[in-house]
Amino acid sequence: MADEKIKVRVTETDAIVEVVVFSKRPDRIEVILGEGVHSVKCELTLTPNGTAYAGSAMGREIVYERNREQVEADLELEQHDYRDSRRR
User: Fold this and answer.
1) Which pLDDT score, from 0 to 100, does residue 54 have?
2) Where are the domains of the chain?
3) Are 44 and 52 in contact (CB under 8 A)?
4) Model confidence, pTM
5) What's the CA gap between 87 and 23, in Å, rounded?
């Protein structure tokens, strides 16, 4: 199965970086930056106003600019069991 990747923004430089999702829940997203022995795990939590997920990795703030409802919709789509669908 292919790793899920999302794009986050590094606030210091406004650079867009693609990261691998380690785990995703409506209240928190864990991502891995980099590859191999140089990889860093970062936890993104929902911002107080609920419009994005933010976290810090190696002193740099990163932001995933999607709100909680959008992430919940993504999770529902991923967890949908297509075997229950019946052909008509």
Assistant:
1) 97
2) 5-83
3) no
4) 0.83
5) 32
CA distances from 47 to 1, 4, 23, 32, 66 (A): 30, 22, 18, 19, 11
Rounded Cα distance between 53 and 71, Å, is 10
CA 39 to chain centre: 16
Tokens 């923004």 found at: 9
Q: Who contacts 38 (Cβ-Cβ below 8 Å, separation ≥6)? A: none
Q: How many residues does the chain have?
A: 88
Quickly list H helices, the chain.
68-79
Q: Say how far apart CA 29 and CA 21 lie, in whole Å.
A: 7
Q: Which residue has the tokens 């929902």?
A: 46
